[in-house]
Every structure is written in C-alpha cells, then in structure tokens.
Amino acid sequence: MTEQMTTGAALLVKAMQNAGVETVFGIPGVHNLKIYDALTKSKIRHIATRNESGAGFMADGYARRSGKVGTAIVITGPGLTNIMTPMGQAYHDSIPMVVISSQLPTNIVNQRTGFLHELKNSTIMAQSVTKMSKTITSADQIEYAVYEAYALAQSGRPGPVHLEVPLDILAESVRLSDAVKTADPKEAYSFRGYQTVNDAALEQAVALIDSSDKVAIIVGGGACSAVNEVNQLAVQLSAPVVQTCAGKGIVSDMHPLCIGTRLPFAGVRAFLEEQDVILAIGTQLAPTDLWEMDLTLQGELIQIDIDAEAFYMNIPADLGLKGDAKTMTAVLLEKVQPKNRDIEATVKALKDEAIQTGPAVTGNTKTYHIAMDFIEAAEIALGEDGVLVADMTTAAYIALSEYHAQTARSFLHPVGFGTLGYAMPAAIGAKVADPDRSIIALNGDGGFQFTMQELAVACTLKLPLPIVIWNNGGYGEIKRNEQAMAFETLIAVDQQNPDFTALAAAYGLEGIRVHNKTELLDVLTESLKKQAPTVIEINVEKWEG
User: Fold this and answer.
1) Are residues 345 and 458 in the same domain?
2) Which of the four, 249, 251, 396, 443, has the lowest number of CB atoms within 10 Å?
C-alpha cells in the first residue's frame, strides 16, 4: 500500500467523479478556486454560467431531461443566495440536484467578522429548500458527505442537497491511500435500497380494482421511470389516464386512453369524481396541478408513492402503497385482472369538450389562438420525441393541456414553485444532457429578462436552440389578473422591453420576428439545424393569424 498527498478540494472532485458526475454548472470565485483547480485535472465537464441562478436552472433542466442528478458549484454568500430560487424550484418539483458551495474558514464561520462573502447561518437558510444542508468540518468527511449527498438527492422523494466546504478544509492536505476503492454511492449509501411491499395493502388494492367497473389513473412525475408499466396497466384495466404537468408524456397525449394534462377542466374532474377507483401513481395531487380547484372523489383513492407522507397531504388516500412507481406498478400489473371497458369514445369526448372550453378555463380569449398557432408549429418542428421547455407565461399555461407530449420528460415546466426565468437556462441544461434531442425554449418577455444573460452560455456552447419570446408587453398574466380583480388602475404590468432582435445581434446571433404560424414553423425548423441559438419573437399585438 502506498500513500499520496492531496487536498480537500481534489478529494471533493474525485468523490464527485466517482459518484458519476459528468457535468457541473457554476461560476468560479475567489472562495471556490481550489475546487476549480481540481476540476481542471478531472474528467468532469464544467459549464460557466453568467449568474448562479442560471447554474441552478441548468442543473434542474439537466436533471429533468436525463433523470440524473444535476450539479452546481457556487461561492458562499451571494453565490448561494442567487441559487436559492432554482433550489426552491427543484425542491418543490422533486428534482435531484446537488449544490456545492464554499464557506469561510471554520474558525470564523457565523461570527459576523466582515469577511468577504460572509453569510450568517447559511445551512439553516438552505434547509428551507433542500432535503439536507450541511457543512463539512474536516477533510476526512468529504468522501462520505459527497456520496451521501448524491444518494440522498436520488432517494425517496428526490430533491436538492446542499454541501458547503470551508476554505481551510478545501486547502487541507489529506493522505490518500491508493488501496481505497470508492463504492458507488447507491451501493454504499442505499437509501433507496429497502424496497418492501405491504402484502396486505397490496391484496386490498387488487381486490378493490378487480371488483370495480370504473377505474381511472392519474399519473405524475414520480412515474417517469415507469413508462412501460403505466402504459401496460392502463391498457390492461381499460383505464383512462389523466396526467399532471410533471407526468406529461408518460402516456402519450396521442394514446386513445389519455385524457391529457387536464385536471383543471371541470368535465375531466367530474368524470374522475364518478369513478369507482382512482389509482394515483407518483403524484401528490398538489393544488397547483388542480389550479387550486376541488377534486371530491366518490370512489376509492389508491395512491402509489415513494413518500408515505403523500398519502395524507392533499387528498387523503383510502389506501396507500409505499414504493417506487416502477416496482409497485409492475406488481399490480401481475396481479390485477384485465378489464374490457368500452371507454375510448368517452375519452375522446372529454378531450373534445376540453379543447372547446380551453379559453374559458385559462381565462384567455384574446391570445388563445396565437398560443395554439405556436403549439402546432412547435409540435411539427420538434417531432414525436422533441422537448419543449416552458417558462411561466401565457402560452405555456395553454400548452400545459394542448401541447401533445408523446414521451416522458419532454415537457419541462416550473409549475410548482412558479419561477420566472426558468425556460432558457433549463433548456440549455436539457440540451447539455441530451445534445441530439430537438429542444425549444418558450419564454415570456417578462420572464426572459430574469435570466436573459444566460443567452451567452447558449451562444458559447453553439447550441441549436430556438429561444421563443412570447412578447405581450410586460407581465401579461398578472395584467389579466389585475383586470379580473377590477383594479381601477393597472400597476407595474406594462413595461418597456428591449429590442430582442438587437439583443440577439449583440451576441452575434440571429434574431427574428415572426408574424404568423407559417413563418414561425419555417424559422423553428431552420433554427433547429443551426449550430447556434436563435431568438424568435412573437409579438402578440402584431400577430396576423
């Protein structure tokens, strides 16, 4: 056995690499340069963002598209506070992420000395948006802490984990034995390894399903790993499927049993309420999925979730099956009896009714047809397996139900936390994770300006990424709500925008204004072929359709 010396920072990066990290997003600063020096000697790819919020959203998009853990590296103080919003989004939407930040030397942490980037109680602050936030206080904790973080981020209900490493620990000399073999974090810290099945609850669930004539399924993002099982179970039970935003595409929107992402539609809720059994797979049935409307089920609710707390959270389950969606759905698939319910005509009627009532449900009659023009053009340009990444904007709220997602992880949207500025950096992260996939970013003009500096990253990486800006002159959805609340004077919703095409030109990119669906489709199709992003502006006041 031989021994060699290394630093805490080098050990940190080595552990990250051994944990399977291939790409990290972040910004170097004087307090994390030890980590960056170690990154230059590793196989890990680093993508420099223009703000730490961009790093967080890119890590989120990377994780949503790939199913792997997204990673970001920031400095303490302003770096950590800047990434808190993306961490909150990831926490709300159960996205696996690890954020690593530096920290002041251990002898002055939390002492208000006036040290550069000092932040009081940083881990306490970060705990509000993470599964765990901890400080590594000695170099010999680094490997364990890193493996624990990556295992925890993926285990149970996924989510972000925060580690901070003080400057003196990053610089500390460590004896590293070449006999030490680093285990896979999932094997070494198998938080997800204890998969048990409650036989009594399972048999009760099977009996309920087998004795019921009318069974329907609601599927959420927790079932992204169970696509085949969910589809097979729906067919076996002749069960209509409604999806949440995070579950969109698990069953193709083109499938004859798929009602779509339409929980906010009264007709769909009425249909669900009269079913004998609702099987909810990988969803909390959160208020945001229902647009804060009631869902009063007359039948039995059977809920499958990795987190038993979900059984009591929003709509209490009559029967909870704790476990990951893939395992539990596969078990049900083996045990339940097939049904031959003539339901496809009903599903089609529900979808037809929803399409007709869409403008009323979304509260948008003025620009609904423009959003539909965008959606139809995007579907053609992206094809069956493309990805639409949407911000919190008018067209996205319509796309939530009307965009036809045909595969899982193909509609990325910050529906839970509701973060503006999500779409473009998340699309960059998704494109990094899946470079051969066609991806479009849909932004509102207001939200785009939250993170528009990340356009530089897409430019640097030469990504064939259409960046669509839905320009309604400010915060269109807030304006609509102010009008609905009968504000005597509208406030802070009509804003002066930059010239978005000139902004694109400033980065050496093409910026194009489109005026109808034909122009839009042509531009989207061509921009997906280029080795550079394209800024595409839809001005709703000048639309010709």
Assistant:
1) no
2) 249
Q: Are residues 162 and 240 in the same domain?
A: no
* pLDDT, tens digit, 9 for 90 and up, residues 106-119: 888 777 888 888 89
Q: CB neighbours of 83 closer than 8 A, spacing ≥ 6?
A: 52, 53, 55, 56, 72, 74, 99
pLDDT at 2 over 70: no
Average pLDDT estimate for 251-263: 97
The pair of structure tokens assigned to 297 is 């089920």
Q: What is the mean pLDDT of residues 480-500?
A: 92
Same domain, 164 and 213: no
Rounded to whole angstroms, how far apart are CA atoms 464 and 323? 39
Cα–Cα dist 211/175, whole Å: 64
CA gap 494, 123 in Å, rounded: 38
- What range does the domain containing 481 cover? 363-542
Q: How far apart are the C-alpha atoms of 370 and 542, rounded to whole Å?
A: 11
Report the alpha-carbon distance of residue 159 to residue 102 in Å, rounded. Answer: 20
The CA distance from 533 to 509, in Å, is 7
pLDDT in tens, 358-411: 999 998 999 999 999 999 999 999 999 999 999 999 999 999 999 999 999 999
pTM, two decimal places: 0.95
- List, edge to edge, every strand of the sheet that includes 215-219: 258-260, 241-243, 215-219, 277-281, 300-305, 319-322
DSSP state of 99: E
> Which pLDDT score, from 0 to 100, does residue 520 have?
98
**What is the token pair recorded at 483?**
């009008």
Instruction: Identify whether 193 is part of a domain.
Output: no
Residue-wise pLDDT tens digits, 76-96: 999 999 999 999 999 999 999
What pLDDT shows up at residue 400?
A: 96
Give the mean model confidence (pLDDT) for residues 314-343: 95
| pLDDT > 50? residue 276 | yes
163, 188, 213: which is the final residue of a domain? 188
Paired strand residues for 171: none
Report the CATH number that the domain containing residue 145 is assigned in CATH.
3.40.50.970
What is the tally of structural domains in the chain? Answer: 3
Q: Which of 349, 81, 319, 68 is nearest to 202 (CA)?
A: 319
b/e sequence 490-514, b meaning 16+ C-beta within 10 Å: eeebeeebeebbebbeebebbbbbb
